[in-house]
C-alpha cells in the first residue's frame, strides 16, 4: 500500500510495526484484517472556507474533517486552526484520536478536523467570520449521534462559542454538536481545571 502523506504514513507504519511484533497477532492472526481497515479513514470532508477580512477583501482557506473510525460510536475529536494543518496531519491525528478514545472505554469513534487558517494577527471580528463560515459547511456532517468536534490548537472556548452559534443558526438544533463550550451554552463546569487535575493526578 503506497502512502503520499508523510505524517499519516509514519503513524500507520509505527502502529502496524508495533502490532506485528506483539503477541496479539501471533495468537490472533485474523486481527491483521483490522490493520487494513485502519489504513484509510471512513470519510474525509474537504471544503473551502470563504470569509471577509476587515478591509472587505475575500479570503479563502482550506477546511477539513477526517472522520476516521466510528466502530465504537460517534466520531469525537478536536478542531485545529493553524497554518501547519494539512490532510496528512489530520489523518495522523484522527488515527491517534481513534486509539485514544478507544482506550477510554467510552463508546466513541475518532476524528480530527480544522483549517490552515492562521488566527495570529487577525482581529476578533475576522476570526468570528472565519469560524461562522467554517461551521456553515461542517454543520452538514456533525451532530450528537454522528460527530462531536471540540476545541484544539487555535480553537479556544471563544471560537467554539462562535461555531456553536453558527451551528444553531444553520440547523435550528442545540444538543451535543460541539464540546468545550462555555457553561452559559451548556458546556461542562471546570473543564479547564479538569485537564490540569488529570495532568497532576493522572
Helix run count: 7
User: Could you give the distance between the termini?
Assistant: 38 Å
Please tell me the overall pLDDT: 89
Largest sheet: 5 strands, mixed
Helix/strand structural class: alpha/beta
Largest sheet, spatial ordering of strands: 1-2-4-3-5
* Named CATH architecture of the largest domain: 3-Layer(aba) Sandwich
**CATH class label of the largest domain:** Alpha Beta
Mass-distribution shape: elongated
Measured by DSSP, the beta-strand proportion falls in 15-25%
Percent of residues in helices: 40-55%
What is the number of E strands? 5
SSE run: HHHEEEHEHEHH
Mind telling me the C-alpha Rg? 18 Å
Any chance you could write out the topology, listing elements then pairs?
Layout: H1 6-20, H2 23-27, H3 32-37, E1 43-52, E2 58-69, E3 75-81, H4 87-104, E4 110-115, H5 124-138, E5 147-151, H6 157-171, H7 191-201
Parallel strand pairs: 3-4, 3-5
Antiparallel strand pairs: 1-2, 2-4
Helix pairs in contact: 1-4, 5-6
EC number: 1.4.1.4
Organism: Alternaria panax
Keywords: Oxidoreductase
Quick overview:
Belongs to the Glu/Leu/Phe/Val dehydrogenases family. This is glutamate dehydrogenase (NADP(+)). By secondary structure, this protein is an alpha/beta fold.
Structural overview:
This protein is elongated. The protein has 2 domains: 1-40, no CATH class; 43-201, 3-Layer(aba) Sandwich (Rossmann fold), CATH 3.40.50. It is an alpha/beta fold and 202 residues long. A hairpin with a 5-residue loop joins strand 1 (43-52) and strand 2 (58-69). The protein has helices at residues 6-20, 23-27, 32-37, 87-104, 124-138, 157-171, 191-201, and strands spanning 43-52, 58-69, 75-81, 110-115, 147-151. It is 42% helix and 20% strand. The chain has a 5-stranded mixed beta sheet with strand order 1-2-4-3-5. Belongs to the Glu/Leu/Phe/Val dehydrogenases family.
